[in-house]
């Protein structure tokens, strides 16, 4: 016999993941206020009681999507820090690799990206946290001898977040450029101003 509210034979984690994916698409397309739980469950082909097995409310699922985005973006940003001892010739490719990771995340999860970077009431805080982590990365990389010491890394970090922000909407999501192309362009522009 099926658990109350869940489709017979359905796997709980799959149902939960499906609800998250469909909710992300609905929020990204219609915004928070126009998204209805009834539409989410209809598209997921589950009942409203199934929704409430996993999420307390529409706000709860939205907040979980925001948190998923923030955590993944934070991991990608931390992972982009350059390790010590890199050959100078490897810098552009290694820096581009970190940016490519971020742009690929936005490419593979556009609905989640729209929620976390644009629709969320905490989007500005998310961008500020990303800029702070990038600045921390850059300061570490200055200490490692990769970049000039006389550059305000706060400006560089905030500029990078602004570039990612605008290029995602104007170039990546419109299909005008790929993640790899955008990353290489940013590196070409920024690295020339930072290199020793």
Task: Write structural notes for this entry.
- The chain is mainly α and 196 residues long.
- The protein has two domains: 12-55, Homeodomain-like (Arc Repressor Mutant, subunit A, Orthogonal Bundle); 63-194, Tetracycline Repressor, domain 2 (Orthogonal Bundle), CATH 1.10.357.10.
- Helices cover 74% and strands 0% of the residues.
- It is built from nine helices and no strands.
- The chain has helices at 12-34, 37-44, 48-54, 58-79, 91-108, 110-119, 123-143, 153-172, 179-194.
- Helix 4 (58-79) crosses helix 6.
- The termini are far apart.
- The model is unreliable at 1-9 (pLDDT under 50).
- InterPro entries: Homeodomain-like_sf, HTH-type_Tx_Regulator, HTH_TetR, Tet_transcr_reg_TetR-rel_C_sf.
- Keywords: DNA-binding, Repressor.
- Residues 13-73 form the HTH tetR-type domain.
- GO terms for molecular function: DNA binding.
- This is TetR family transcriptional regulator.
Superfamily (CATH H level) name of the largest domain: Tetracycline Repressor, domain 2
The separation of the N and C termini measures 68 Å
Structural class: mainly alpha
CATH uppermost class of the largest domain: Mainly Alpha
Based on DSSP secondary structure assignment, what is the total number of beta strands? 0
Our count of domains comes out at: 2
């Amino acid at each position: 016999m099926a658990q109350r509210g869940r489709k017979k034979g359905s796997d709980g984690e799959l149902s939960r993941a499906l609800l998250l994916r469909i909710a992300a698409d609905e929020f990204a397309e219609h915004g928070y206020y126009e998204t209805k739980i009834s539409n989410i469950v209809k598209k997921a082909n589950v009942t409203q009681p199934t929704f409430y097995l996993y999420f307390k409310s529409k706000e709860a699922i939205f907040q979980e999507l925001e948190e998923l985005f923030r955590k993944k973006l934070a991991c990608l940003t931390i992972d982009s820090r350059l390790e010590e001892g890199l050959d100078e010739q490897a810098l552009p490719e290694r820096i581009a690799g970190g940016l490519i990771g971020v742009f690929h995340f936005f490419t593979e999860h556009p609905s989640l990206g729209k929620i976390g970077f644009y629709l969320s009431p905490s989007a500005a805080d998310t961008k500020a946290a990303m800029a702070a982590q990038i600045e921390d990365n850059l300061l570490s990389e200055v200490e490692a001898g990769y970049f000039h010491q006389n550059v305000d890394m706060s400006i560089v970090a905030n500029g990078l977040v602004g570039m990612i922000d605008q290029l995602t909407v104007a170039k990546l999501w419109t299909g005008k450029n790929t993640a790899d192309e955008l990353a290489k362009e940013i590196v070409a522009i920024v690295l020339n101003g930072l290199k020793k």
